[in-house]
Amino acid sequence: MMKLFFSLGPNPEKVAFLLEELGVAYELVPVDTFKGEQHGAPFRAVNPNGKTPALIDGPTTMFDSTAILLYLAEKHGKFLGAVEDRGQLLSWLMFVASGLGPFSGQAVHFRRMAPQPQEYAVNRYRRELMRHYQVLEDHLVGKDYVVGGVFTIADISAWGWVARAEFALGEGALQPYPNLQAWMARIVARPALALAKEKGANLPLKRDFDEETMRALFPQNYPLEAGSAAAS
Ligand SMILES: N[C@@H](CCC(=O)N[C@@H](CS)C(=O)NCC(=O)O)C(=O)O
């Protein structure tokens, strides 16, 4: 059975969402990133980049949510949209992977996690994230889904971070973007998403955000420990 290495976060949740849409059997393997398990040798052997998600499917091991979404959609021949829209599908997947995702992550980091207030960084990432929302907002005029009028992995990929808009920017973050809100309502109504969320929520993962968690997630705030995986 496929193994999905999972923690609670947008990137692993996207893959669980797709697996539920596909209706294939898979095992969720918890990687407790709040305890630093992503830096340990057993997980690094699966994902040398030390982040979730990763997937093992028979002889194939892979990491990065976008790579895994493409792999699974191609394997099952589903949620790729029409062949003539493949360029659009790849474009929007990369828009999320290289823009919406990283800018969301940094917006969260500097607004909520940085040890000292960093006004410049907060503004930089907030405005860039809002610019990405506006790009999607304009693209979605008259469209139900991101690519070709059908539900694809581009919707799954964008959902992961748009779902956390308020976490990144604060209450009412999506208010200026009515098309994005309407699209979001279509995505969150999908039964597969509820199933994926429920399975994730039942895993025994640490929830307390304490000193151990700060060290695990933001090792740059602490002195390098020679030879540690986090230092590499
Ligand atoms: N580009 C990667 C990003 C993966 C990522 O940042 N995963 C987060 C969870 S959403 C993680 O593992 N965080 C733990 C850490 O950074 O130590 C992807 O799309 O899979």
Question: Can you tell me about this structure?
Answer:
- This protein has 232 residues and is of the alpha+beta class.
- Helix 1 runs antiparallel to helix 6 and helix 4 runs parallel beside helix 6.
- The chain folds into 2 domains: 117 residues, Glutaredoxin (3-Layer(aba) Sandwich), CATH 3.40.30.10; 107 residues, Glutathione S-transferase Yfyf (Class Pi), Chain A, domain 2, CATH 1.20.1050.10.
- The longest helix is centred in the middle third of the chain and has 28 residues.
- A 4-stranded mixed β-sheet has the order 2-1-3-4, covered by helices on one side.
- The radius of gyration is 18 Å and the shape is globular.
- It contains 10 helices and 4 strands.
- Bound molecules: glutathione.
- Glutathione binds next to helix 1 and helix 3.
Question: What attributes does this structure have?
Answer:
alpha+beta, Glutathione S-transferase Yfyf (Class Pi), Chain A, domain 2, 10 helices, 4 strands, globular, binds glutathione
